[in-house]
Structure formats: structure tokens, C-alpha cells
Amino acid sequence: MTSAITATGLRKSFGNKPVLDGIDLEVAAGTTFSLLGPNGAGKTTTVQIMATLVHADGGEVRVAGHDVARNPAAVRAAIGVTGQFSAVDDLLTGEENLLLMADLHHLGRAAARRRAAGLLDKFDLADAAKKTTATYSGGMRRRLDLAMTLVGDPRIIFLDEPTTGLDPRSRRMMWQTVRELVADGVTIFLTTQQLDEADALADRIAVLDHGRVVAAGSPEELKRSIPGAHVRLHLADITALDSAARALGGSFPHESTLTLEIPCDGGAMAVRELLNRLGDTAAYVDEVSVHTPDLDDVFFALTGHPTAETTLELENAR
Amino acid sequence: MTTLTFAMRDSATMTRRSFRHLLRYPATLVTSVGVPVLLLLLFVGVFGALKAGLGVGAHISYINYVVPGIIVMTAAYGSSGTALAVNRDSTEGIIGRFRTMAISPASVLTGHVVSALVRTLIGVALVIGVAIGLGFRPTADAGQWLGAAGVTALLVLALTWLAVAVGLAAKVAEGTTGFLLLVQLLPFISSAFVPPAQMSGSVRWFAAHQPFTPIIDTLRGLLTGTPDAGTTLAAVAWCVGLALAGYLWARVLFRRDLNR
Lengths: 318, 260
Hints:
Shape of chain B: elongated
Mean pLDDT of chain A: 88
Number of helices of chain A: 12
Number of helices of chain B: 11
Order of helices and strands of chain A: EEEHEEHEHHHEHEHEEHEHEEHEHH
Number of domains of chain A: 2
Helix content of chain A: 25-40%
CATH class of the largest domain in chain A: Alpha Beta
Largest interface: A-B, 31 and 26 residues
CATH superfamily of the largest domain in chain A: P-loop containing nucleotide triphosphate hydrolases
Structural class of chain A: alpha/beta
Oligomer: heterodimer
Largest sheet of chain A: 6 strands, mixed
């Protein structure tokens, strides 16, 4: 496995307020890595350091094999950045924005035109190509922003909260694009506060809270690592349910639905062991399903406080 | 291609971008020529009649006296467009995008400076054309015209680099207004419209020692065929010093961390 991005002991303070407090990350080439955390956790600062926009106070960051502090030019040649601090030129049309990027990547005139036309089509902007971007909707601007990032064919792309505030259609388009890019071997470093987004896209997730990584792993590992996961068995009849409940101590039978819930991490070995313990009753199991908590639960369990969105929902409910 | 040719190519791309902005929104050019022309009309029309009382001297017509000041004001108004353009780039985040790209870092600012230089010099030429229509009669020979053009270009360069730095330093567009007000008002307290000798007390001292006065006097000397070596040297020194200060300040601001 080759690493596209590594960070060791990354630290950054603004004034005497620590924003990143010793972060270690490793992102394998050709995968999607998601940095998940609430507002103010340090996600944007991490991206800014990796994208050569901000100097770290301590630690080492290597992107595409180059040290960001010592060789920023080589890092820039490998990356593309789209995010809260990236932007489009409002006084130019969508097409001119793309051609500007093409010129800065030193593509020839014909290649630049081809690239711009292709990206305008891909991002559903061909009809608005000749309009200045000041007239674009939020979703269109964000799509153009990503299209501009793709002009140079970067091998590593940073997406800083790319779907915040997007309508569902643009959001799905963004997700689709991320999947296509990864299929082409591009490495994606995605920050988000939307838990379903990290769940849907990322191969690995690191949860960032107050400048520290509080958990890291695949979405499934994270979901399994906290209490609340269970296996649910659907049984053929009430007799089978009773005998299964007797065989598996600590389980919760639901007679009305003929289901039995057993606390379990949901891993393959654990499920096999559980079915072995059932003995002959296993023949009466119609369906086995593993239920893992969603990332909202994970976040709460890991940080001891809910995400901003959940807090808001709770407050609204009151 | 070498690093230098890439740098040139990126700078050309950025300059083209600035010109495209200008052509799309020519209002910048219109106001930066229109306001000095209005001031010219105002001063020639209103104060020309009072010339005898202004202490300008009998050897020179008031319009000939006042045009160099108007040229300096054109340069000052031109720099306000630059400060706003740089500030827009910096606050809307496109500078952040440029800084993550493998381009010559200098090209981002060079593009603004080159286009501002060309835009403002075109503005100055238009203002001089209008002035000639109104009765401005320069007596400069070819060499003196060249000298006047050189001093004007140097002044525009100085104001532009200062404007770039101010545009980068300001967190919002309103933050540039202090600088704009300063460069637009300073010519009024200089030798632009009235010789400083006619002013009183501390105002006279200020008018005699501020940078715009030697620059205006130099332009006036060159255009009316009476250049003075000492004044010219002072003007060039001010311009080079201010340009260098603006350039170094802008460079520090451009290289610092984003979002600070």
C-alpha cells in the first residue's frame, strides 16, 4: 500500500488557542478518506496545511511523497482543492473560468477548449457556459468549483465540506463524481460534518474533535466499536423463538414480531459462534440481520457530545 | 520550458484575466477617467478666472498649471480600482485557489500590476487629450514627453503596488477606503492647484514636503519645458521608494498564512 498523504504529530495554534493538537493520519493512494467532525474541530485547518496554504507549528505532512513545508511546489503540482476557501472568478463566465485554469496548467489552446467543453458537459453547466458566474446558483457555483479543480487532472483532491448547503441533486452529483474519481485511481481527502456522507463515500474515516483524532477506521469498524450493535434473528414460530431465547442468554425476544435481538459486534466470527450456540434451532431461523448504529451514535459515543446538527434537533424538540 | 518562461506565461494569463474584467465592466475605466476630467473642468472653469489671486504666476496659463495635478489624480483614482480588484480576489477566495496551484506565485500579483499600469496610462492619455481640447498647450520636446511618461509610469507603479498591498491587507472591501481617500485627497494639499507658497502655516509645510508635490512639479516642468533636475530626482526617489515599500509589503502579505 502506498500512502498518498501522511501526517505525523501535526500541530497548529491560532494565538494561544490550539486548533490541531497532534494529529496522525495516513491516507492510502486511490482511496477516499474522510475527516469527520463538527464545526471548529480543525478540519479546514488540516486541509489548509496539507494544501500548502497554512504553515504547521509542528509535525510533518507529506502529500504525494513531498514534504509540504519543504517542497510546496511539488505538492501543488499533485493536488486539487475545492472547498470553503476555494472559489470561482465571479466576473468571468463559467467557460472562461475553466479556460483560465487550463491556461494556468499550460494546456494548449485546443486541449484547453476540449477540456473545458468536456467538464461543462459533465457537470451539467453547458447551458450556462457563456454566463458570468455571478448569475449562478449555489449548486452551480460548487459544481463549477469542482470542475475547475479537475482541469489539471490532480491525483490527490481535497474536498472541504463539498456538499454543505447543496440541494439533494447537486449533492448526489458530487457523490457520484467522487466515486468516479476514486475508480480512476484518484485519492480523495474529504472533510464533512455530515455523517451519512462519510459513511457513503469513505474507505476510512477519522473522527476529529477539538483538534484531536478521537477514532479512526472503516465506517463499519467505527460503527462496531461502540455499544449498541446487535444481531437480529427472525424465527419461524413462537416455539423456535422460546428455545432460541433460552439458548442465547442475555437476548431480547419480541413475541409479536417473532424476532430475537442479541447484543453482538456483528463480526462474521461472532455471528457464526452465535449460530453454533443455537444448535438445531438454527434450522428455524428465517433471517439473520446485523444492525450497527449509524455514525451519529458513533460520534456521540466517541466525543461524549452530540454533533451540532443533533444538538440543534434536540433543542428544537424541546 | 524554464521556470522563467512559465512565470512569464502565468503572468500573461493573469494579466489577460484582469483585462477581461476591465472589458466586461468598463465602469472602472470610465470613472477613473471621468472623475479627473470633471475636476479639470471644475478647476479650469471656476479657479481659472481667479488665477491672478492664486499666485500661479503670469508666465503660465492656469490650465497648463493644473494639468500635471490632474494627471497625478488620474493615477490616484486608477489605484483605487486596483485595491478593490485585489481585495475581491483575496476575500472571495480565488487567491486561495491560485495558491494551491503549481503556478508562479508572483504571477497572481504581477497580473494585477501590469493591467493596472496599462489601464491607468490609457486613462492618463485620455485625460491629456481632453485637456488639450480645453486649451492645454504643453511645450515639451520629445525627450521631455518621454521623461514625463516615465515619471507618470513610475508613479502609477508606486501607487499600484501600494494599492495591491492595501487590497491584500483589508479583510473587507470597506477596509480599502482609508487608502483610497488618502491618495485621492493628498493631491489637493499639494502644488496641484495652488503653489504651496500661497498656503498658510502647517498646511504649507505639509504641501511642500509631501511626495505628490515634487512629482507634480516635475511633470509640470517637463510638460512646460522648464524641467528642474533636483525636483525630478526627488520625484523619482519618492516613486521608487513607495513602489519598493508597496512591493515588499504586498509580498509579505501574499506569503503569510491564509485566513489570518
